[in-house]
Amino acid sequence: KLPSLALQPVITPELIHGRVHLKCAYSHPSAKPPLGYVVVWSRLSAPGKKEQIQQDTTLQSFSYVEMDGVNLRLGDTVFCTVTAFPRDTPEQQSLPEESKGFYAGIKFLPESLQIAEDGKEHVLTILSTVPVACPEHDDSCKITLQLSTEDLGKNSRLPGPPNIALSACRVDLLRAPCSESSCAAATLMVTAVTDFAQDGNRVSRIRAEPVGRRDVLWRAYTPKDVKVTVRDLPTGNCYSFTDPHIITFDGWRYDNYKIGTFLLCRSMSRAFEVHVRQWDCGGDHSATACNCGVAAR
């Protein structure tokens, strides 16, 4: 056996002749006699289980594998394992060194969201870890993703009201130079729907599907869903009832026996207000008004 050589293999994506390849690069010790390398490519076929897809014997300090959509597909986690040997005595081999797993496909950052019904916007970044090829006769180097949401409520057979809102229904991942595991990226805003209902914490998911791509690599690929947990917040209430007794949001109580149209409630921070119309319903002996109409914006 040769001693450990600290080859430190690393996988990076590259576009070669318009096709996506992965490159396994490793350090090249200046050893005497000169070295050769065996590079084994594998993919994660099940949790904790790897499947070999290619083996190269090379004198170079790198090896390539193509993402052809058959042996290697988007959504795969890929590894390369490198073993060195002296060229004149190939039976002497170093200990194999394995790269970190490289996930090839669409990633969401963060991978899951926990938000509250407070109106705040949350940034969701969508990125591709592999470069985007330009289709033939088309210079638009982008992946278009169609976005949808689904509420995973207590009774999923009955579709409830939407639980989250997205700032866009489609996003384009435009090709850019690959850096820090991103070769194309876009951002999206996610907001919890304020539904004024005490319906507990609910879970939704965001789904992204590539559209308009004809190439084998992207056509059969659907990225993993993003799980979004929405924390229910208590809702404020105000009331106007019978001969109108009024209870405000903060618990004040008073009466309004007058007849006419009144501004019951107005938000100081958003376009929300409620008007009430009251009419005489007291008869001959008492001056009493009742609600007869309501308008809300």
From TrEMBL:
Pfam families: Ig_VWDE (PF25776). Keywords: Disulfide bond, Signal. GO terms for molecular function: signaling receptor binding. Residues 236-297 form the VWFD domain. InterPro entries: Dev_Signal_Modulators (IPR050969), Ig_VWDE (IPR057885), VWF_type-D (IPR001846). Signal peptide: none annotated. GO terms for cellular component: cell surface; extracellular region. This is VWDE protein. It comes from Pterocles burchelli.
